[in-house]
Structure prediction request, 280 residues.
Amino acid sequence: MLLGYRGSVNSWECDENDHLNVRFYVEKHWQTVCAVLPELGLPSQNTTSALAVQHLRFLQESRLAAPISGYAAVVDAHAGGGVLTELRNTFTDEVLSTCIHRFDLPVEGNGVDLPEHARPRGVPDADLPYVVLKLPDVDEYGFRIIGKGVVQQAECDGDGRMAVHNYMGRMSDSMPHLWGLLGAKGRELDPGEGGAVLEYRLCYHRPLAAGDGFAFHSGLAEVGTKVQRFAHLVFRDDGTLILSAQAAGVRMDLEARKALTLSAERLAHMEALKLKPFGG
Prediction:
């Protein structure tokens, strides 16, 4: 694999759980891809607008000052094609996170086999069935607005479109609203507990640009004693679907640094708030 990024975790990149926030995982994955575009046989122009899917796994925490290196390789067509990036600890070579990028453009060359640690696990490699819904219909299925705003110029890249990692950033900013609906007390009331994500699949339908208003419509798709699966639909204010996403996440014991097993009472509360199934 080709080295495309080398840096470390800054304090301002860490979240309330004292580890690298997901937006900066995405930002470092994307830097890795963009740095090696010519060597991968990809055009260096309009790559952002050609991005169709990112499937991320978060395998290990990255804490303050952790040295990170990003590597990239084309993935064999029989494994779905695209570009695989891995973020690793520079000195231990431990894989911290993986991302499969798929583009609306041909990706050529001899690819690598997709390693087991990068394969989809808790989130299926398929888009949400809810993507066929129109904005006025999403409430019927239990989606709730957890994030809303207007794209700022500082969030955009050189062509005026929102930078790739800021989609994840806005989603991360919105998640306390969803966790709160599901019974999480928040850090002020329960400082020993936080929320962490294990896997994400983002499907980019249309770009957001500076000045665009948008809203995140989200809900709980599956309930488990440890792992929960979420669904997100992001609409521009004119009703255009911008992004759809699925995620697998856990509540995290911040002292033991491991996933919590949820109580029966809490699981029952979550079950009552699950999204209504949609079969297409």
